[in-house]
Amino acid sequence: MQAIIKSGNNYVITVKQNQPKLHAAIVKQTPTTPPGSTWSWTQKGHGHTVKCRLQVYSAPADMKSQWTGLQQVISVKRQGERDGKSFRTITYYITSETNKAYALAPTIRGHRKIENNLHWIKDVIFKGVTINKLSILSLRRPRNFDKPFSQIG
Fold first, then answer.
1. Interatomic CA distance for residues 96 and 73, integer angstroms
2. What phi and psi values does residue 14 have, to the nearest 5 degrees?
């Protein structure tokens, strides 16, 4: 992140449970702190309708001291129906951006689209196979792609 900030750019990073302390701090902060800004939208397509609500919070001082350039914490609540089943999710992000929610919404939507596309490639093209460094190196050599992926060595 230091390199990103040093180069004059900003970051938006998804906070998952693989960062347990940060994730827990955000989960604790967001329900008790009023957001600085909020933006809502509805997404439709591929058999689902989703209502989204993006809320932006100032990052607490203790988080800012641990994450270079950190300015804000973002919460995105999604609820809707997919294939006839109701769902509700909350995704958290940290960012060095200082924009309001409406200006961050396209970035968040684009971030999710990139992540979904990468998962689609893994799931459809590579049939869910985890690709390691060795596999990538072996794919650089000319191969007979008439063989199933599992037989490529």
1. 9
2. -70, 135
